[in-house]
């Protein structure tokens, strides 16, 4: 029988060795799970009473993961991302954003970052975003003479924002494994996600202002509106969209009123923007937007602004369907993913862009991506169960706590472990393997000692740690040698752009990600402010 310390070392070295020779993570984890039990227990105990011995723990762990209802949302979100990538919705969104910022220094890179945020809020899939931005934005930036490193870094860093911005697949998996409210995780990650996107945009603005050669301005097109005129057109676009949105909300509130669905009942939450008391505010918003169109912007400017910005309508509808159904209390995460797929499909049909080939190709991509995730989940769940059975989490907890480090010292050690593991391992494996060990330790730490500016409510420690973990995984998508964003971009980049060039472009953005991670560690209330 091997002691738990030696067993832990064997698992760690075995994992790196198996990954180094090219064995897929799912199979490597499953193989080590069986090896762990064989080293700890007698082989006859494992196989002699098949189905009831220690080996049955692996089957139970895998079954528990595979039968979790929320897991269904993962292939649905992947399918939605694939449909968005193949249809013209994302292309038209990029064109509309480009209209407003084309004459701004570094405008194409800023448009790329904003588009990445919108794409993240629609699907939460990282690989598809990087590929899509690589196909749409990279040729445009290179054609206009943008610095190659700036273009590469912007696409890959912004394309990985799906890790942080809801509906993030990483947050969904974390919630599944730790039994934490996924809705609360989504709420908590909003501000950190947009903070990171803001860091990227500010960096682009400052760098391009300091060095104009990094982002030359494109030549002016004849008939282009000037800055003030373009601003009024954008205001007209927003006002017209507000008219439509207020009209829909008014009809919805009236319907709820006539059917009695919005009656005030004890113990029942009010319908967001659907109560009788909300109707005057909706009417006021409608009237205000109408006044802006009639007396400030003008009908002609509004019409031009709508034509320039109508590519943003479909993405806004998809985001409203997915996140609105979750936060409006209409559906859970899984149903919201299904509604998002239906919304994208219907929009594609209305636009006459949804063909059988697009749907079939999207289904095949979904099958491939989901299969990879499922195999990793099976292997990692088996290894986590085996390691738990032999007392691994208790050993690691005693080892960390026994080091007599201060609370933030323990947290920083965990961050370093996440960063190192993220360089070599897929985030699914890290969630399933390491989180069951680390989270119980964090929960037992004194809440008042977590952070330097402000503290975390003990109730929200799992949520805080989940968002911090996701920010850490955000770094892992760019971290060499196995940063997946680099390989996603390489698959669609021009042949003269090497992997070395891509990783070189990452460096400033990795520094920005580490700065954002530091903010979450120094000032924890930024995560829990909306909870």
Task: Tell me about this structure.
The chain has a domain of 91 residues. Helix 11 packs across helix 21 and helix 21 runs antiparallel to helix 23. 73% of the residues lie in helices and 0% in strands. The protein is mainly α and 531 residues long.
Largest sheet, in brief, is: none
Structural class of the secondary structure composition? Answer: mainly alpha
Sheet-strand content, in percent, reads under 5%
Distance from N terminus to C terminus (CA atoms, Å) equals: 48 Å
Main location: membrane
GO molecular function: transmembrane transporter activity
Membrane topology: Multi-pass membrane protein
Subcellular location: Cell inner membrane
Q: What layout of secondary structure does this protein have?
A:
Blueprint: H1 4-20, H2 25-40, H3 43-47, H4 56-66, H5 73-86, H6 89-101, H7 107-122, H8 126-143, H9 148-159, H10 169-178, H11 182-210, H12 227-259, H13 279-297, H14 299-309, H15 313-327, H16 333-350, H17 356-389, H18 392-402, H19 407-424, H20 427-444, H21 461-476, H22 484-490, H23 499-522, H24 525-528
Helix pairs in contact: 1-2, 2-17, 4-17, 5-16, 5-17, 6-7, 7-8, 7-9, 7-11, 7-15, 8-9, 8-22, 9-23, 10-20, 10-21, 11-21, 11-23, 12-13, 12-14, 15-16, 17-20, 18-20, 19-20, 19-21, 20-21, 21-23
Q: What keywords describe this structure?
A:
531 residues; mainly alpha; globular
Summarize, please.
It is a multi-pass membrane protein. Pfam families: DctM. The protein has helices spanning 4-20, 25-40, 43-47, 56-66, 73-86, 89-101, 107-122, 126-143, 148-159, 169-178, 182-210, 227-259, 279-297, 299-309, 313-327, 333-350, 356-389, 392-402, 407-424, 427-444, 461-476, 484-490, 499-522, 525-528.
């Amino acid at each position: 029988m091997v002691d738990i310390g030696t067993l832990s070392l064997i698992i760690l070295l075995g994992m790196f060795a198996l990954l180094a020779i090219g064995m897929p993570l799912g199979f490597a984890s499953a193989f080590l799970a069986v090896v762990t039990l064989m080293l700890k227990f007698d082989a006859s105990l494992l196989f002699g009473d098949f189905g009831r011995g220690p080996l049955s723990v692996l089957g139970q762990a895998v079954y528990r993961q595979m039968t979790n209802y929320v897991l269904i949302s993962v292939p649905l979100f992947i399918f939605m991302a694939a449909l968005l990538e193949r249809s013209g919705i994302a292309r038209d969104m990029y064109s509309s954003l480009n209209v407003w910022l084309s004459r701004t220094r570094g405008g194409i890179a800023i448009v790329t970052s904003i588009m990445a945020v919108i794409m993240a809020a629609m699907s939460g899939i990282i690989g598809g975003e990087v590929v899509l931005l690589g196909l749409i934005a990279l040729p445009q930036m290179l054609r206009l003479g943008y610095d190659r490193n700036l273009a590469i870094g912007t696409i890959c860093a912004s394309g990985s924002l799906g890790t942080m911005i809801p509906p993030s697949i990483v947050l969904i998996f974390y919630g599944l494994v730790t039994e934490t409210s996924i809705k609360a995780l989504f709420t908590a990650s909003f501000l950190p996600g947009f903070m990171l996107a803001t860091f990227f945009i500010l960096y682009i603005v400052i760098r391009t202002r300091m060095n104009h050669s990094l982002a030359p301005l494109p030549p002016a097109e004849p008939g282009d509106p000037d800055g003030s005129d373009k601003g009024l057109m954008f205001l007209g676009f927003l006002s017209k969209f507000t008219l439509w949105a207020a009209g829909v909300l008014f009809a919805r509130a009236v319907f709820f009123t006539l059917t009695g669905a919005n009656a005030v009942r004890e113990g029942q939450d009010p319908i967001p923007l659907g109560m009788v008391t909300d109707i005057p505010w909706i009417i006021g918003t409608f009237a205000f937007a109408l006044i802006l169109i009639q007396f400030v912007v003008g009908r002609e400017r509004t019409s031009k602004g709508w034509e320039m910005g109508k590519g943003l309508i479909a993405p806004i509808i998809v985001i409203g369907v997915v996140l609105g159904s979750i936060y409006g209390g209409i559906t859970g995460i899984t149903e919201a993913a299904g509604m998002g797929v239906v919304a994208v499909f219907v929009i594609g049909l209305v636009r006459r862009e949804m063909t059988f080939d697009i749907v079939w190709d999207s289904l095949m991509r979904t099958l491939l991506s989901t299969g990879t995730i499922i195999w990793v989940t099976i292997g990692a769940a088996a290894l986590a169960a085996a390691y738990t059975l032999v007392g691994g989490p208790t050993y690691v907890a005693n080892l960390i706590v026994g080091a007599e480090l201060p609370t933030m010292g323990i947290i920083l050690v965990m961050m370093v472990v996440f960063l190192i593991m993220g360089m070599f391992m897929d985030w699914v494996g890290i969630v399933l393997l390491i989180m069951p060990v680390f989270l119980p330790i964090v929960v037992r730490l004194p809440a008042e000692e977590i952070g330097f500016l402000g503290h975390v409510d003990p109730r929200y420690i799992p949520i805080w740690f989940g968002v911090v973990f996701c920010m850490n995984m955000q770094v892992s998508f760019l971290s060499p040698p196995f940063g997946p964003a680099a390989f996603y971009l390489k698959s669609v980049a021009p042949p003269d752009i090497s992997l070395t060039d891509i990783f070189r472009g990452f460096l400033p953005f990795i520094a920005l990600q580490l700065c954002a991670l530091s903010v979450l560690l120094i000032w924890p209330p930024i995560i829990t402010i909306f909870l």
